[in-house]
Amino acid sequence: SLMSRVYNFAAGPAALPLPVLEKMQAELLDFNGTGTSIMEMSHRGAVYTEVFMRTRETLRRLLNVPSNYQILFMQGGAIGQNAIIPLNLLGGSRKTIDSVIAGAWSLKTQKEAARYVSSADAAPIIANSDDGQGRFTHFPEFDTWQCSAESAYINICTNETIHGVEWYPSREVSDAVHASGSFFVADMSSHILSRPIDVTQYGVIYGGAQKNIGPAGVTFVIVRDDLLDLQHPLCPSAFNWRNVANNDSMFNTPPTLSIYIAGLVFEWLEAQGGVTAMAAINDVKAKLLYDAIDNSQLYRNDVQKPYRSCMNVPFFLNDESLNAAFLEQSAAAGLAALKGHKMVGGMRASIYNAMPMAGVEALVAFMQAFEKNHG
Ligand code: PLP
Questions:
Q1: Which of the residues 187, 248, 285, 339 is marked catalytic?
Q2: For the chain, which end, N or C, has fewer CB atoms within 10 Å of the first or last residue's CB respectively?
Q3: Which atom from ligand 1 is nearest to the alpha carbon of 162?
Q4: Is the separation of the CB atoms in 141 and 289 below 8 Å?
């Protein structure tokens, strides 16, 4: 029942909007009078095709994706794409992959990319904001990047889920990258659809769905048309973006249920006013939480203010001996999954689109009461 649902601060798979879950539940056994569940029907049939097309079009509208970009729904997650991307982009004349490191996810991407180039030198880390002890508190400033003369592309992760570091390129930065003949490939897994983006600043945008989009199992790839024919000869057919694009993401059976639920989330988002409205709410939610942290004696967030993520808020208790009590009491108060990632420790509140303002208010109220009781 409604009463048993908690505020879920998990980093992913993450909370979904309640109206989406309710609609899904209502349609689960009999989709639109077909007598069949959506997950039991052919992906090539008229009913599912309509659901699929609507889902893709809604995403295109939400993110204002220009017509010279394809939207692909794939499998394998963002980590799968870390391999699929070089297999799709290294068949051209440029053979170097540049990576900017701002946390654990961009580092993982760089390590995977290094497997597909001729030598380690051809997958350079061109900037790194690791403080030397595995802590990341900002995104590397553009003027520190040591871009390769002829990079095929530049890996970035615009929201580092574990460290809570968020950054978007400015128009000047993306123009400079384009002028060099390269382009950004951006992992946006954990903040896609949290605010408007300018898709034209990127060659490729990708991510797993299980934070801001829907259930795990579907991977989104937004790719510029002119990048669809740069495959390495060994790129698997099912992961070949050209094949996927030419077959409306149905070269093989897509994750039909996950795509359908993503569509419900997109329609929910549109009903909220789209990503512009969502950004305004997300900014208020994030400010509420960061202000509560900054104004306390007990809590601390170390990320530099311009780079603080609006989606993933890691924080520490200055008295770490209180961690266990904090987690136990917050869970008992209906505030779930606040334990920080093991690489960072402490706490982390992920406040994606589906987290209502009331959830953040409840968290802040709990944190203040906890501090008072343990001050
Ligand atoms: N990239 C980012 C930024 C993430 O937050 C995650 C989280 O799971 C991943 C990649 C991994 O994605 P997946 O598990 O879908 O491969």
A1: 187
A2: N
A3: 5
A4: no
Contacts of 355 (CB under 8 A, 6+ apart): 7, 8, 9, 15, 285
Range of the domain at 355: 273-374
Same domain for 208 and 110: yes
Domain boundary among 206, 240, 270: 270
SS3 185: strand
Strands (E), the chain: 7-8, 69-74, 96-101, 125-128, 151-157, 159-160, 165-166, 184-187, 204-208, 219-224, 299-300, 312-317, 335-336, 347-350
Catalytic, 105? Answer yes
pLDDT tens for the chain, residues 1 to 375: 456 899 999 999 999 999 999 999 999 999 999 999 999 999 999 999 999 999 999 999 999 999 999 999 999 999 999 999 999 999 999 999 999 999 999 999 999 999 999 998 999 999 999 999 999 999 999 999 999 999 999 999 999 999 999 999 999 999 999 999 999 999 999 999 999 999 999 999 999 999 999 999 999 999 999 999 999 999 999 999 999 999 999 999 999 999 999 999 999 999 999 999 999 999 999 999 999 999 999 999 999 999 999 999 999 999 999 999 999 999 999 999 999 999 999 999 999 999 999 999 999 999 999 999 997
For ligand 1, whether the C-beta of 79 sits within 6 Å is: yes
The verdict on 282 and 264 lying in the same domain is no
CB contact set of 361 (below 8 Å; sequence gap of 6+): 288
DSSP letter for each residue of 223-248: EEGGGTT---TT--GGG-HHHHHHTT
279 and 265 belong to one structural domain: no
> Does 12 sit in the ligand 1 pocket, CB within 6 Å?
yes
Count of structural domains, the chain:
2
Q: Are residues 221 and 290 in the same domain?
A: no
Contact 253, 80 (CB under 8 A): no
Indicate whether 326 belongs to any domain.
yes
Residue 36 is assigned to a ligand binding site: no
Give me ligand 1 centre to Cα 30, in Å. Answer: 33
